[in-house]
Amino acid sequence: MPGGIDPHTHFEFEFMGTKSVDDFYHGTKAAIAGGTTTIIDFAFPKPGESPLDAYHTYRLKADGKVCCDYGLHVCLTGWSDQVKKDMDLLCRDHGVNSFKLFMCYDFMVDDGELYSAFEHCKNLGAIAQVHAENGKIIIKNAEKLIAKGVTGPEGHEISRPEEVEAEAVNRACVIAKQVGSPLYVSNVTSDQSAEVISAYQSKGVIVYGEVEASSVAVVGQSNNPNLLTSPPIRSSPQAQTNLLSFLASDILQVTGSDNCTFNQSQKALGKNDFRKIPNGVNGVEDRMSVIWEKGVHAGIIDPSRFVAITSTNAAKIYNLFPRKGVIAVGSDADIVIWNANETRTISAKTHHQAVDFNVFEGMTCHGVPEYVIVNGRVCVDEGQLRVAEGHGRFIETPVFPPYVYDPEKYITLLTEHKNGTVEQNTQNFQKIHLEQYSCETPTFPESVVNTPSCRGARPEGQRNIQESTFSVSEELDVDKKTSTRVRHPPGGKSSGFW
Ligand SMILES: NC(=O)NCCC(=O)O
Ligand SMILES: [Zn+2]
């Protein structure tokens, strides 16, 4: 099947006074180990940093480190003319087509800002994303709990009940409807939110919902700081089954991981006040297996729908289709050979992530990637991981995805055969991408990272991959060495070796 696309990761994210421990190397390496061949991370502006500068900061962090292809959403932490201009430039010149707004946290935006941002996204042909929880209610609830002496992690879920999420989802949908813009709701954790989304879909609003792997596979133990994420992992196992059913019936379309990992010592920053526990859990490595286990193996989701919700739908929404999300002539060679009969038991002892625990610890999953091919390079070979640092590329996401903005045109690109099967005419999709909306030459400032080259000095300690004796198979990890380091700098030339 086509390699997985995880549209929601936070690698090297400076957040809540600390930094997530999976960097772009460990995060993408782990992704590949689990069958994901493309990730989309979030460029998040630090206080005082512009969205455009945040984008450049993230390109510098990521370009030399990524083992698989990646794209960037850009977060908007406020609204101004400058933000609007940055959005124009990001869409026009830098291959960005999605912007995320938060309705909670200390960088939450208000309804007017959401309205303006959604409207501008619509004008640009971009996707507006929201993290939907009512931040003002959460602050009040948390203050009351702390005053009553509830300082432990259980306060997190109590302060953020399902209706506080569903209210924000509803508000975001109302604003999208008023503006006439498409909307993408990340982190749907409850029936209530999914039902709101369904209601607005029935009213003709283009609204998509994303579910995280942790929401369908971790049974919430609200007193465990390591499981703390936002919105919270809900306590009821029924909520998990229901989310999977919403994914099966196309009310919700996408699965992500929201991989935002903090070690136990970082989680301890909030030991006296749950508001200070860094929010986030792992999932980039285990998402595919976990969704297979809980969805396909459990009989709720069929294998075709599994491919849609782990890969193809994200490719279509973020305008990567048919380059990604499908196995077809002309598409990138991102391919997974999935063994549904094999099982593996998830553990921090064996995972490839940098974080020192795993929220799925002990879970046995059917469905193991036996081979993972990343842009033509075999990176998992009979279960053995051999990634190459810098092998991944930044992938532009052009504006006006036809799947989102032009559903009618999208439908005309589907050919219905006499036997009732429907085929996607990928050639025509490609034409739309290339001829109309493609961002041809993203600009990028001078890089500090060196390009591997057959001429000139190599960075110290780095292997010369141009040597004719070099072979990928020689890099097979025997002890701990599971990676080849091949840095691709931003804007730099690919060696063409692979
Ligand atoms: N999800 C979470 O708790 N942390 C990452 C930031 C976000 O996406 O809300
Ligand atoms: Zn997130």
From TrEMBL:
Note down the stretches annotated as region Disordered. 453-498
The reaction(s) catalysed by this protein are:
5,6-dihydrouracil + H2O = 3-(carbamoylamino)propanoate + H(+)
Indicate where the modification N6-carboxylysine is found in the sequence: K100
Q: Which InterPro entries match?
A: Amidohydro-rel, Hydantoinase/dihydroPyrase, Metal-dep_hydrolase_composite, Metal_Hydrolase, Metallo-dep_Hydrolases_sf
What's a GO cellular component annotated to this UniProt protein?
cytosol
Q: How is it modified after translation?
A: Carbamylation allows a single lysine to coordinate two divalent metal cations.
Q: What class of enzyme is it?
A: hydrolase
Q: What is its EC number?
A: 3.5.2.2
| GO-annotated molecular function | dihydropyrimidinase activity; metal ion binding
Cofactor or coenzyme needed: Zn(2+)
Q: Give any Pfam family that matches.
A: Amidohydro_1
Q: What is this protein called?
A: dihydropyrimidinase
Which source organism?
Answer: Acanthoscelides obtectus (Bean weevil)
